[in-house]
Amino acid sequence: MMRIDLHTHTTASDGLLSPEALVQAVQAAHLDVFSITDHDTLDALAAAETQAGARGLRLIPGIELSAMWRKRFELHLLGYFFDPADVRLVGFLRERREARRTRLTAMLNRLRAMGIVVAADDVLARAQDGNVGRPHLARVLVQRGFVGSIDEAFERYLGEGKPAYVPRPDVTIADAIQVIHNAGGLASLAHPGLHNHDDALPDLVASGLDAIEVYHVTHTHGRVTHYRRLAERWGILVTGGSDFHGAVGGDYGPAPGMPCLPEADFSGLQAAARARRAALRP
Hints:
By secondary structure, the chain is α/β, with parallel strands linked by helices. It contains 11 helices and 7 strands. Helix content is 44%, strand content 15%. The radius of gyration is 18 Å and the shape is globular.
């Protein structure tokens, strides 16, 4: 039976392992199939693909996009099986990178108003090629002694509704799903147990959502059962993975493959992806 993890991260976004080191960790975890789902970037894909091929591992192109639902709540979408060279996707990600820098400036200004002064360059130095996110800022806050942990940084300042939180502008759920679909991919709602917005599902499905992440490190057995039932009710597919970032703690899996996606669910995703690509052919 194949071991499959469709949710991992590298230093290209907010992970702690390089693409090469992640592939080594995936092999050590005895996985057969995995996906790198870095936030708003595909920068890790080429290096990881080379390393994965040399080790007999299958890498599924993946990404994690942030988008707003009803202009109030930020949800995350996982994209899979798309064409990484799609020009519309590449352009979209370039715009997202600039939006991340703008968001960082706004968060730093809010922190400065509270007497917490952090230089943008210190944060950007932790982000590969400027693809900066809140975890990078949180690590600098820990390093500078403003907080004792990354969790504390989010709980006091950077989490949704906290004084330095700045929502990501401009991208709606429908926009993000369309970008993934245009590139021939499938869109899945990431870690629904973290935000508890099951009421968003009707809107997401109406916008073309293909799947929901049933298996996630934060999902208990009861949660897994709940989200699988929701997937069946709405006629969508199932995804899953560890959300591995390279460190123990927080909402991340301690190792790749914890948990894995059942092979039968992966087969359903592959079939849907083939149908999507066939429908896009001229």
